[in-house]
Amino acid sequence: MTPKASIIIADDEPMLIQLYHDAISSQGFEIAETFQNGRELMEYLTRTNGRKVIILDHLMPLCDGISIVKKIKQNANAKDHYFILVTGDITSIDDAHKAGADEVLVKPFRMHVLTRAITQGLALLSN
């Protein structure tokens, strides 16, 4: 049996973390961890194993979302991570995809778009 993937949220805005957490939880998903800066997320990802759906903001202090995706996707365990990058800057979409983001959501977006991306990530990671 394949272990269930974890859902991680990283955003420097506590209000957005709470909004994402509430919306995702209301759909039956369980959030494993939350982070308020890129460095904490990067440290967590490099020291833990397991499949993860990671929702991360493009612009965070200490390490931005695109840099995190790019670095982790170079790792041998990259197939165990599904990255949903959230941005308010449409000009960063191409850079996010080139870095290896699996999904890019442009703010503002409806929460059903996020839950659909999570469902897709979980399905891909379960194969």
Descriptive keywords:
Rossmann fold; 127 residues; alpha/beta; 21% strand; 5 helices; 5-stranded parallel beta sheet; globular
What does this protein look like?
By secondary structure, this protein is an alpha/beta fold. The protein has a single domain (6-118), classed as Response regulator (Rossmann fold). It has five helices and five strands; from the N terminus they run E-H-E-H-E-H-E-H-E-H. A five-stranded parallel sheet has the order 2-1-3-4-5, with helices on both faces. Helix 1 (14-26) links the parallel strand 1 and strand 2.
Task: Present the secondary structure layout.
Layout: E1 6-10, H1 14-26, E2 31-35, H2 38-47, E3 52-57, H3 65-73, E4 81-87, H4 93-99, E5 103-106, H5 111-126
Parallel strand pairs: 1-2, 1-3, 3-4, 4-5
**Helix-strand string:** EHEHEHEHEH
Low-confidence stretches: none
- The count of helical stretches stands at 5
Overall SS class: alpha/beta
Oligomer: single chain
What general outline do the C-alpha atoms trace?
globular
> What share of the residues does DSSP label as strand, in percent?
15-25%
Give the name of the CATH architecture: 3-Layer(aba) Sandwich
What is the domain total for the residues?
1
Q: How far apart are the termini?
A: 11 Å
Summarize the structure.
The chain has 127 residues and is α/β, with parallel strands linked by helices. The chain is built from 5 helices and 5 strands.
